[in-house]
Amino acid sequence: MYRMGHRRKSEATQHDQRTVSGPRTGSEPTSLRDALFRTPDTDALTGLASLGILSLRLEEIYGHCEALGMRPSTAFALLMIEPDLGARTPLVRDAVRVLVADEATRTFTHGETIAVSGSRFIVLAANTAGLPRDGVGMVERLQQLAVLKETQIASWIEQLPDEHVDTNRFVLELAF
Description:
By secondary structure, the protein is of the alpha+beta class. It is 39% helix and 18% strand. The strands form 2 sheets. Strands 4-5-3-6 form a 4-stranded antiparallel sheet, sandwiched between helices. Strands 1-2 form a two-stranded antiparallel ribbon.
């Protein structure tokens, strides 16, 4: 559902040499690519795409749009969905993440990439007039569930930059 193409993890790009620092066991920095790809392709709890897969899909989109002479922001957008789970127990947080993932996969069935990072869900979809409506409808359906009745769920649209960006860095900024 979330793959339109495939690139092996061992293939390097010019973006791979940038570094980030973060919580690590060693003191040496890691590349952005390593930071995204040290996790599996899918989230173990929800089955949704990882940030690494989202980064690869964005690379593909920028390549396709460039080849077709299109602006990426015209063709695609990112729907962001984030339930506020701060006061919830770990078990309830996991249950909510599964419920949101299930609703996202029921809502977006036309080849969209649905990724998850913590409690933030990112849907890479065609930039149509129906995308905001789909996001609002999804949030309304989620808030009808007993476990989510009192939960604030934020949703918003992020436009893709028109110029080709470092997708690894872009995805990490979106995720946090």
